[in-house]
Amino acid sequence: MQRVVHELPAPPRVSTIIIPGARLTGVEAPGWRAFELAQRQVAVALSLVGRQLAVVGPAQVKVVHFDRAGWDGTTALPLLSRAQLAPDEAVLLRTSAELREAETTFEREDARGEDRASTRSRQARWLLTVEVLHPATATVLAEVHGQLDEDPFAPPNEQEEFDPHWAMTRLLETLTLAPAITAAQPDAARAQPDALRAEVWMQNRARFLTPWLDEAQAARLARTPPSLVVLAAPGGARLQPGDLILSVDGQPALPEVLARGRLKGQVRLRVGRAGEERDEVLP
């Protein structure tokens, strides 16, 4: 891993982090894959600075021009204005992941020069870059580069067995930590025509976005509408374990939206319980 920090005469004040979908090249991946990877970065950002900074995720912002560092390269500016977030205090994490594959063939000959056998080996290498941009001044504040050779024999842990490129995801989270700084709803029925395979596929997506859940919790989450599931609450709280947060201040129920609202104070929630919906205010 290599990190480059660009020295500026006056480093900007930061109050918001924007994390759009990652750019994937060299690998065939559905569109929602970029959202899922970025949402994992959102989880890292929330764990680091979610109590101090506002976080904007990939379901709300996308990159439209990957070669531009200013606001014209993203769709973030209108969102920041509506959310009353200062554009000059926002940084953007721009992520790219490229898969390079190479295949080598070794041929063996006998004493007479005739081919006897051949073996093939395949190498898959990931090249990842996470850039920290300050769109208001169209400058790059920092760059973190990482390289990884996939080991086909390395076993994933229980929280990674459903991820086809778990080692790359782990490296991406590490690169997101280095700068310190979607709700994509895939069509499971179209992607997996078999009903049983579709259910397993949706559970894998739920476990990828929330790797800290056990298998039973992920199975339940995969069958709920787009929402945040309350796993624990103190005694006497308005929310109870099992409640579904359906919207936050009238916006989609996303972890980063809830964290941003709590930075400002009270948050208006639409909560579902036992098939009924009600409004709550979370202090």
Write the layout of secondary structure elements.
Elements: E1 2-5, E2 16-18, E3 23-25, H1 31-49, E4 54-56, H2 76-82, E5 90-109, E6 115-134, E7 139-149, H3 166-177, H4 188-191, H5 195-209, H6 215-222, E8 228-229, E9 244-248, E10 251-252, H7 255-264, E11 267-273, E12 276-282
Radius of gyration, in angstroms, nearest whole number: 22 Å
Termini, distance in Å? 41 Å
| CATH class division of the largest domain | Alpha Beta
The strand count comes to: 12
Tally of individual domains: 3
Low-confidence stretches: 180-191
Provide the CATH topology of the largest domain. Rossmann fold
Q: Roughly what is the average pLDDT, rounded to an integer?
A: 84
CATH architecture of the largest domain: 3-Layer(aba) Sandwich
Beta-strand content bin: 25-35%
Q: What is the general shape?
A: flat
The arrangement of helices and strands along the chain is EEEHEHEEEHHHHEEEHEE
- The secondary structure category is alpha+beta
Helix content: 25-40%
Work out the helix count: 7
User: How would you sum up the major sheet?
Assistant: 7 strands, mixed
